[in-house]
Specification:
two-stranded antiparallel ribbon; globular; homotetramer; alpha+beta; six-stranded antiparallel β-sheet; 8 strands
């Protein structure tokens, strides 16, 4: 298992371009937050789809690292996103991840994405990660 | 229907941050290419997942615009990606889209993503778009 | 909106081959239960995947009918299932559905499938339904 | 690798309830056919969704067995289906599978489903299988 501090440090060094901040990690779950930049907006002031996917991917990775410890070789194998509502371009996007399964070689989790402070989710993601065999 | 020139102009104005170039469009299909930037690399010299998703999303949108004409309000409703092989960070990523279905309100297509010049795909995407009702 | 009795009667007449019993419906959610038959088992005494998909599909349909009323023309447009644990062949399978979105033409929901009485889910499903335009 | 005869015999003993006939297997691909029964029809004379998913699942399994040999413990881990057109209840359903990836622990493939003799597919499936480690 890895603490919030350990996971945050690892994410910052491994993904220097990510803007996701780790808010919570542990208990097979994670919460991350992402400040939306001007380059991530779509016409109409909403957030582009790939940005949302990236936040969900980060939330999954953080939740997995929180359980298995710092394992650089875990990789996303699949991701399914359903877009539900337009996110507000002026608010942070928050990703709330819960792991459904943490097997020896495969982890599966879901992520709900929200515009900060809004009750209704803007997107839902299911993702799978391949975990390298550990000795 | 929209020509390659029309679609390219629309993409450039609507998505100024995209780096996708439209290579082909028409016949329910599209080919786009994306030059990988330094900020899009992951450790190990591969391309980040959200970048691949964005290229697939663009390929789908281009293929749909090629059929229905310039319709700004078409929006992605879902996207499923399977990551198959590590893309080379030093090569363009090429997205080849074919539409499976083009209904009145829903379009479904698949996209194969390749590192330029390589025979084996790096990822496969299925995406759906909601199309606004046309008069 | 439709009551549990109305939905149950409609399901029984429209899908005479289904064995799903409607336990709850309303509030954008539904619970259905399915008694596993001998012909639905796989070697090892577990339940076949297509049977699980059918139960999830029924749970989604019930939840949607509970909101929009008896609409025979709603059809599944996509379904993504992740298999998490082996279900027990000797127990009913219970499907718990919550709708994520109920738009004018598209509904999206998730379903957790359980072996009756077990705390951990055996599968997770996200499905979308196309809803015919209503006057 | 396993021949068509070997795969057919294995499928018949392991899945006695399946009606899928193996038409072709090899070269990372498979073709299966399924005769639609009365109990598999939906109102309007079309084929129920779970039946289509089962055929796709069988096609994937056959294609994988054709490559790795008879491995009883390979299991489906996820499946995404998009329904494209109504299948004809009076025609066999044919599943054409191609594997996208065959790794050491994970196989990914796509399946196009057709009503026999029709040019346009009725559904598209992407599925993943976990493959047990081989010595």
């Amino acid at each position: 298992m890895a603490t919030k501090t350990e996971v945050s440090a690892f994410i910052a060094s491994e993904f220097p371009q990510t803007k996701c901040v780790v808010r919570e990690v542990g208990n097979r779950s994670a919460v991350v937050a992402h400040e939306v930049g001007l380059g991530e907006l779509r016409p109409g002031g909403t957030v582009s789809g790939p940005v949302l996917m990236g936040i969900a991917d980060a939330a999954l990775y953080v939740a997995i690292l929180g359980e298995i410890g710092i394992v650089p070789l875990a990789v996303t194998t699949s991701l399914t996103i359903n877009f539900l509502r337009k996110p507000a371009g002026s608010k942070d996007v928050v990703g709330v991840c819960k792991l459904m399964k943490l097997g020896r070689s495969l982890a599966v989790g879901e992520v709900w994405l929200y515009s900060e402070g809004e009750p209704e989710p803007v997107a839902h993601v299911v993702g799978t990660y391949a975990i390298p065999l550990r000795s």
